[in-house]
Amino acid sequence: MCGIIGVCSVDRNVAPMISLGLRRLEYRGYDSVGVAIIDERNVQVWKAKGDVDSFLSRFKIDSIAGKTGLGHTRWATHGPPSDVNAHPHMDCRGKIAVVHNGVLRNFVTLRSILELRGHSIVSDTDTELIAHLIEDETQFSSSFFEAFARAVSRLEGSYAIAVVNEEEPHRIYFARMKSPLVIGVGGGFNAVASDIPAIVEYTRRIIVLNDGELGWITPGEVRVFRLTDEGLVEVDREELLSRIFFIEWSVEAASKHGYPYFMMKEIVEQPDSVRSTYEGNVSDPVLKAIASLLATSDNIIVTGAGTSYHAGLVFTYYLANIAGRHSIPLIASEYKILERAVSKRDVVVAISQSGETFDTLEAVRAFKGKGARVVGVTNVVGSALSREADITVYMRAGPEIGVAATKTFTSQIMLLTLISIYTAREAGLLGDSEVEAEIASLAEAPDIVRESIERSIEVINDRELGEHRSAYILGRGLGAHIAKEAALKIKEIAYVHAESYPAGESKHGPIALIDKEFPVYFAATRDSPEITGNIMEMAARGARVVVVKPEDYKLPVGVKEAKIVEMPPTKKDIKLDPYALTPYFQILAYKEAVARGYNPDKPRNLAKTVTVE
Ligand code: F6R
User: Fold this and answer.
1) Residue 169 resides in a domain
2) Do 214 and 176 form a contact (C-beta atoms < 8 A)?
3) Taking the CA of residue 476 as centre, how many other CA atoms within 13 Å lie in the half-sphere pointing to its CB?
4) What is the largest CA-CA distance in the chain?
5) Last residue of one domain, picked from the residues 201, 233, 254
6) How far apart are CA 149 and CA 468, in angstroms?
7) How far is the CA of 491 from the centre of ligand 1 (A)?
8) Same structural domain for residues 416 and 483?
9) Atom 7 (ligand 1) nearest CA
10) How close is the Cα of 361 to the center of ligand 1, in Å?
């Protein structure tokens, strides 16, 4: 969740590079910020609770001299946001500075051991222990790297770490276990970072580190080792060179392009991102391989977290309704409830925009341990999911910076719908010409999404939800899944308690909450005309009812008390309904957040990529 950057340069002061990197990383976590810079003599640390911009101007970071440095944006796990808990953390002598993303499971044990050995720990964090542990190990080691490796081998849990040591002012040490970390290979400098956007302005040559790897960079050298039972084994130069890949997307793709917030930029980008997902995958043979796995497996488990889980729900719907295949949706953090029931004849489809979500990766590892085959669906090339899955498909949606997932949701749906159609062919439900027709109809999605965005911007009020602190977002069939995602968006950025459940459930309890003007939104998809009854029930109790539906889908009976919002027609094709309805709710959440004075790119307590348990 935290963001890390470290740069060492042969001739440039690195503070401005680190500042820019911190701005690019802020979406990962933003409760506190810190920087460590080594000039030729000593390591100095600046850190504070608060956001990146205030921090950079308060300490005039850009003007600090020094050719090696670290930066960190924090998303609190151990200890509340505060100056003292901000990273970098130092050892007792103030010579070693550490930044870290992850959670150490053996935090309590390590802390008591270190305290018994006389270390005075000043913060509540697990990260500070790493600095003290390295300091402690230097007494038993012949080099700093040996001490670093010994310390790393004592860590349990997840970590991406970058470390500087005052005695080696041109070197950054790093280690990775279950938290993302990449190396940027530059000209006259090298860098480490938790995310590619932090360094892509400076280099497009990236090495993705694997779990269990550690090493160091200097301005002219990258050395990577694996921690094995037999000790440290160096990754040879040829292998390392072959792991360098080039980032194709541009810096502009990760900047705001004149929009006030990334979230709006990414909502508006959906016609392009959906098209890119469609065109980039439609003829990819990997989809056929996945389809044949799905058509022949015993069980299909579809897993992910948050928005990715909601895309997974849509997938289970299409798998059943297009391909006739039953699948089990599973929130990734709940993987244990199915772990014992999974076998090698099963397939797990793991969906994750970032490919780094801890819960999803844990589920993948557990199911792989049972012999299941894993299909990874991700947006990030080289992500942990892409490396752990047996087969990976990419969303090709471009970088998503806004914390709230928007364009990646519609791209996930596009990709998963393509997979459902190919699975139908493999399962013998659709012939070649029918598959062709189904695929061709999806080509309408970018235009539908564009029109839906335009109409939504026009019809949604800034304070659509008024002073209400709660709302229901309901649907049936496919609409129930779209409604779930809608409610998540409204909760996470507008801080309105939006609850979602299948509309038919209202009469079994939730309708008790309805009083005059209680906002109830319906995502009405064409598969569920029965929703009309639920709309009437709500309207009859005085709720403020809004029905969002494709224009060419007529409700069986009119409900005069309900406001009907017409979204673009979807050619009577249920596969196109998500593109007509989803932008409405994204824009509602966005407008509501901005009008209430919240920054939709930085929702409180959230981070873009959740790399902790
Ligand atoms: C919601 C949101 C989160 C993520 C979730 C999974 O807007 O962004 O709910 O969807 O944390 O993230 P990924 O898809 O990266 O695994």
Assistant:
1) yes
2) yes
3) 15
4) 81
5) 254
6) 54
7) 14
8) no
9) 404
10) 13
How far apart, in Å, are the Cα atoms of 458 and each of 269, 401, 451?
Answer: 17, 25, 11
If asked whether residues 244 and 267 sit together in one domain, one would say no
Nearest-CA residue for atom 5 of ligand 1: 306
Residue 2 designated active-site: yes
Residues 87 and 231 both lie in one domain = yes
Residue 30 has pLDDT above 90, yes or no: no
Neighbours of 384 (CB within 10 A): 28
* Catalytic pick among 2, 489, 491, 549: 2
Active site residue 344: no
Same domain? 295 vs 232? no
Q: Is 354 close to ligand 1, i.e. is its CB under 6 Å away?
A: yes
- Encoded tokens for 496: 């309105």
Q: Residue 589 belongs to what domain range?
A: 461-613
**Which ligand 1 atom is nearest residue 307's CA?**
10
pTM above 0.85, yes or no: no
Same domain, 342 and 389: yes
> What's the pLDDT tens digit per position in 147-192?
999 999 999 988 999 999 999 999 999 999 988 899 999 999 999 9
pLDDT at 271 over 80: yes
Is residue 27's pLDDT more than 80?
A: no
| 305 touches ligand 1 (CB under 6 Å) | yes
State mean pLDDT over 335-348: 96
Residue 448 within a domain? no
Q: How far is the CA of 482 from the centre of ligand 1 (A)?
A: 15
Q: 405: CA distance to ligand 1 center in Å?
A: 6
Beta carbon of 412 within 6 Å of any ligand 1 atom: no
For residue 337, tell me if it sits in a domain: yes
Number of domains within the chain = 3
* Ligand 1 pocket check for 303: Cβ under 6 Å: no
Q: Is residue 516 in a domain?
A: yes
What DSSP string describes 544-584?
EEEEEEETT---SS--TTSEEEEEPP-TT-GGGHHHHHHHH
Do 255 and 245 contact (CB within 8 A), yes or no?
no
Q: Show Cβ contacts of residue 394 under 8 Å, excluding neighbours closer than 6 positions.
A: 280, 281, 378, 379, 381, 386
List, as one string, the DSSP characters of 80-139. -S-TTTSSPEE-TTS-EEEEEEEEETTHHHHHHHHHHTTPPP-SS-SHHHHHHHHHHHHT
pLDDT of residue 196: 87
Does 357 sit in the ligand 1 pocket, CB within 6 Å?
A: yes
Residue pair 494/467 in contact by the 8 Å Cβ criterion: no
Ligand 1 within 6 A of 487 CB? no
